[in-house]
Amino acid sequence: MRVREDGSDVVQAQRDDDRITRVGLFLRRTSIDELPQLLNVLKGEMSLVGPRPHAVFHDEYYGRIVADYDSRFKTKPGLTGLAQVSGLRGQTAEVRDMAARVDKDLEYIRSWSFIGDIKILLRTVLIFAFHPAAY
Q1: What phi and psi, each to the nearest 5 degrees, are found at residue 60?
Q2: Could you tell me which of 110, 60, 46, 49 has the C-alpha nearest to residue 84?
Q3: Cα-atom radius of gyration of the chain, to the nearest Å?
């Protein structure tokens, strides 16, 4: 993405975002841009499955307005998660979009199992290679 200095505003990538280069569009649509996060998994800072991390600004903002948002931090963030394989990937244009993600993140935390993680990983591979919400 091209850099745009927006001061304290942190704007999520959105469909037809003018900051995304052609190479960046390919990387994002194929989710190849997520591969460097494997280093964070190998270092033990992330899991393969868990709540997806957000920008610190978004954590602070949504932590104030979405019930139980901070409960997502009870587990390590993941490369993929229940929210993503449940269709909640992409821009969160409305607060209710983030609230829906948080609900799925908390459902994941409450019902965690090894088999559940395997299912989420398989669904990730099958669903998101060229998912239309990847931009």
Answers
A1: -65, -45
A2: 49
A3: 15
Sequence-ordered alpha helix ranges (H) in the chain = 22-29, 37-42, 56-65, 82-85, 95-110, 114-128
d(CA 94, CA 82): 19
Q: Where are the domains of the chain?
A: 46-128
Using CB atoms within 10 Å of the CB of residue 50, give its burial: 0 to 12 exposed, 13 to 18 middle, 19+ buried: buried
CA end-to-end distance (rounded Å), the chain: 11
Angle between helices 56-65 and 95-110 in degrees, nearest 10? 90
1-29 pLDDT, tens digit each: 555 555 566 666 666 666 777 887 787 77
Q: Identity (one letter) of the amino acid at 129?
A: A
Do the beta carbons of residue 20 and residue 28 sit within 8 Å?
yes
**Taking the complete model, does pTM exceed 0.85, yes or no?**
no
Burial class (CB in 10 A: 0-12, 13-18, 19+), 130: exposed
- Token readout for 127 is 């669903």
